[in-house]
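ASSEMBLY PREDICTION REQUEST
Request ID: AP-0331
Submitted by: J.K., bench scientist
Number of chains: two
Total residues: 758
Priority: normal
Notes: Please return the full assembly, not individual chains.
Input sequences:
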Amino acid sequence: MSAEEHKDIETTGHEWDGIQEYNNPLPRWWLWTFYITIIWGIGYTIAYPAWPLIERATPGLAGFSTRQNVADDIAAARAANAEVEAQLAGADLASLAPGSPVYDYAVNAGAALFMTNCSQCHGAGADGAPGYPNLLDDAWLWGGDIEAIAYSVRHGIRNDQDPDARWSEMPAFGEMLSEAEIGAVTQYVLSLSGNADDAGLAQTGATLFADNCAACHGENGEGNRDIGAPNLNDAIWLYGGDADSVTETITASRFGVMPPWGERLGDAGVNALAVYVHQKGGGE
Amino acid sequence: MSDSTPPSLYAAREPVFPRRVYGPFRNLKWWIMLVTLGIYYLTPWIRWDRGPNLPDQAVLVDMAGRRFYFLWIEIWPHEFYFVAGLLIMAGLGLFLFTSALGRVWCGYACPQTVWTDLFILVERWIEGDRNARVRLWNAPWTLRKWRLRITKWVVWLLISVATGGAWVFYFADAPTLARDLFTLSAHPIAYTSVAILTGTTFLFGGFAREQICIYMCPWPRIQAAMMDEDTLTVAYREWRGEPRGKHRKAEGADQLGDCIDCSACVNVCPVGIDIRDGQQLECITCALCIDACDDVMTKIGKPRGLIDYLALSDEWREREGQPAKPIWSHVFRPRTILYTSLWALIGIGLVFALFIRPEIDLSVAPVRNPTFVTLSDGSIRNTYDIRLRNKHPEVRRFKLSVVGDQMLVLRIEGSHYSSVEVPPDTAELKRVYVTAPGGSAPATDDRTEFRFWVEDLGNGERAHADTIFNGDAR
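STATUS: Completed
Returned structure:
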């Protein structure tokens, strides 16, 4: 239809370069709904935190606070978990059955605690890093059963804060052995896991090893968990299994430290971490 | 431009008082109302025995349990594509009907139309037909007017409560929830849902009516894009009806068209338009004006169809006195055939997918932090999170195995066996270790493809999933 046929239809009265606009009035309820939303919006900013001030926003008359909501939620979660937490704190870890409510709780709580407290050194996947043990494999410096893991977590390793911390110290042989002798011991140590480059040198190192190292690491380099002496004939190397790394370890020694977590996390937290780490694939 | 007072940009709703009408389309709409309302109100009460541990409601959306039950079909969250498929079918179905028959959904089956129709029916029972309602509207607020209005509102409210009430039964066991609702022990969410739907039904069906279609619903705008000149839609045969006029003998009635300007079509219109003004956004094609006009045409002895389902492409034919094309030639055209084929294709696909669904299933997520672990004997271990699904209503024992490389050995965390029990109707998450001895091909290759098999030890049913073993390729 042409505009001619529509000339009796009301326009808004606006005209731009000869172009006019038909008046298609909005329904009045729409207008009222719009006003109501404005009034609602004003009421909302009065009832709820809204206007930003210098220190903080206006608090609102309804007393609503997301911060308080979170605090309430956390308190509610704590209260709901209080019973199972108490059971976990007093649990006999060795006899805790997988699939039981306490065990399942421990796995989940331990995962959260691990991410917060342990993953910085041991990695989010618990696979460690040079100097920080991989917790997934089957090699354990101080023991891999659940009680031993709990002890390591509770008291830590080579720290001054906890008198019960696991403690051992390897001497720095750089002051006692010559470079050539250390090179020979290195080749012998590598030969224990079948990785020596120089069989002759390794032969020389055998005597040196028996005199200086076997007391802690065992005659065949099998290690000793009572004093945290690593097994030297397996495929796991905490600081690297190449000749340079092993030479470095013998010359200057290593002194890995782990803080005690018992006081900070409590019995339930320590037990949760022990259960979590134990079921990651390497637990004994 | 020197305009004095600008016109108001807002207008109050013009009340609409649709008159009672009789005819085939009205009867069809009564039947559709009966069927659709029947389906809506009664479906949750149909029982369906699924055996122990499972709900016996034929149609149930179990949000908490994350299950959707439809007769013998049970949909798990990972099968949500069935719902997506049904939604696509519903969309294509609407496209099909719109391109063939215009806004037929709006006019016959849309809940807004059905409930408004129901509310108008109640209105007519209580306040009388159009003329009585117009009189009552204009009458002062006497005791009688209050009585009629309050009666009407109470009946509307009862229908609204029943509407809101029926909705919640789709989400919980209907008899239990009904008892809880009446004894005031149901969950607050149930009451809130009922209250909100009661409010919207009351407001939309009783007061907003055509305003919903005109101002709120996007569908009329979308539909306009799906119609074309072959779409059959409600229209006025202007070439036959005009010039309109009262057929009084003295005034040269032989010069006039068939339209006697009786306003029957306007009076029955539930959206308050005059179909003789042509296609309009407001028109929901409910076809009540066809019934009204046919009735009048019969009375004055003219052929029916002054207002009728018409295709625009027939307009010039009829103006030139040619017969209209047959209806099937309007309906069967490439567009509708395409919509129908797509619709059927997806439907067949869904039915096919439904029948090949296994009763046991697994999905494998390799743990990638770290991708592998070296063990003290030099062997390489990979870890997998495996979700085992048991859709049977009883406990099943599933045996897991790996196929693809002889060297790969499987172990399930916390278990000495290669089989696990999965409780009925559950998905069980298990951590599984696969180890390759040091120096073996999978341990030294970058990636080795292999397959997890899960077998139901009860009936031998099997399912599999392919994945990758990461070796230490340094």
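REVIEWER COMMENTS: Chain B touches chain A at residues 1, 3, 6-13, 208, 211, 215, 367, 369-370, 373-378, 381, 383, 413-414, 431, 433, 438 (CB under 8 Å).
SIGN-OFF: pending second reviewer
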